[in-house]
Structure formats: C-alpha cells, structure tokens
Amino acid sequence: xxxxxxxxxxxxxxxxxxxxxxxxxxxxxxxxxxxxxxxxxxxxxxxxxxxxxxxxxxxxxxxxxxxxxxxxxxxxxxxxxxxxxxxxxxxxxxxxxxxxxxxxxxxxxxxxxxxxxxxxxxxxxxxxxxxxxxxxxxxxxxxxxxxxxxxxxxxxxxxxxxxxxxxxxxxxxxxxxxxxxxxxxxxxxxxxxxxxxxxxxxxxxxxxxxxxxxxxxxxxxxxxxxxxxxxxxxxxxxxxxxxxxxxxxxxxxxxxxxxxxxxxxxxxx
Length: 269
Known about the structure:
Blueprint: E1 6-8, H1 13-18, E2 19-25, E3 34-38, E4 44-50, E5 52-56, E6 60-65, E7 71-76, E8 83-87, E9 92-98, H2 109-112, E10 117-118, H3 127-136, H4 140-153, H5 161-171, H6 176-183, H7 187-198, H8 202-217, H9 224-230, H10 236-247, H11 251-257, E11 267-268
Parallel strand pairs: 6-8
Antiparallel strand pairs: 1-2, 2-9, 3-8, 3-11, 4-7, 4-9, 5-6, 7-10
Helix pairs in contact: 3-4
C-alpha cells in the first residue's frame, strides 16, 4: 500500500499570502516502507507528527510509528543538498510550507533562523496540545479549519517591505553590488538583513530560486541549453554544477527520473 499525500492550499486569503500550502498523511501501520528525496527550496518547512520515533541525520530523516504517545515537530529553514525521507510505516503527520518571509508573521524569525533545523520544535505554549486536537479529528475539512484558525490566531502582520524589495531584486538576478547601490546600503547590511528575515544568504537564495524555476519551466523548454539560459544561469556548466549540488544528479539524469509536471514539485516520491 502506497502512502497517500493530500496537499492543500490555504482557504483563508490572509494565510494564502504567507503559506504556500500544507499536506496531511494519515496513519496506516500496514503500509509499505516509503522513501523519497526532497530537494532544496526557499520555503520554511514545519512538520508535526504524532506517536512517532524520529531519527534525524544530516541528509536523512527516518520516521516510524512508536508505542510512546507523543507529538513531535521539527522545523527546517535551510538545506543545500537532497534530503532522503524514509517512512518505515505511515504516521499521522501535518507539514506546512511557509513562503519566503512568511514565517516572520507568525514567529520571531531571528530566533528560528539561528539553526538550519530545529528538532522537537515547540514555538508556542499551546502548540502541541492544539496539534493533538487536530489529529484527533477524523474529518479532513474540520482538521483544515482548525489548523487555519490556529495559525490565524498567531498571525501578526509585520512591515517587511524592505526585505520584500531585496527578495524581488535577488529573484530578478541583480548583483549584490547593484542592489546595494540601488538602496544605498552596504553589502554587509544586505547580507545581514537577508539572513535575519529569510534564513539564507542572498547567494544561497538566488541559486535555489534559479534551480526551482528551471524545474517549473522544464516542460516548455526545447532543450537543456535553452532551459539554462532562460533561467539566468551563466552557461551550461554553471547549470550542471548547481543541479549536481542540489540533486546529486546532472540535469539529463534528473529529468529522466522526475516528473516535473507534478504540482508538489518541491518533493518527489
């Protein structure tokens, strides 16, 4: 029996601005082991699991059901190489993808960005209790409603106009020198502000943004040369190098094994 992942976009308009979406996995102790690779992206990822045993290594997450009653959350804001996710059997899980800058409106971002990943993440006094209450619900619509209401209760809109402008400049592939001149800032200030609000350096964000764009545009490109030029890579070797870093494969081998028409393109099963 294969694991079924159900992905949802937020129904609330406010949440849609800051959360890309979330998926649910339902517990099934009879399911076969499942493994997949998740590739670098610019989202912040919060996963909450119930009654599980987690083994987190640098490039591997191992998840299995446990007789111990628990609710465990982990938060990942930064990774530059593929991570293998292995489910020995499926468990109750909710995973939320926050858009770049989005997490800042719910949590104190400077604190959560001090580490690339946080194990046993517990951002609020009522967090685990509320997540457990969501897992108890059997109806998916009720779960979604309660999940969205919870995050709305933690929402506090912040003025991130400047960080948003820097993000747009990076995505437009402006050089740091050009951005510094445009805003009359030093390079050091831009790097500091970016890391504080996004959890990555501008250079890291730019490379991942190019990589992700190339995945979305793959089907519309005639060949890999056109794909690399259309996504602001300097040349084919630059394209190949970044792909090798982010996927452990060259572009040709990657696209032969990955369906880029999938909606959930930040992970592949």
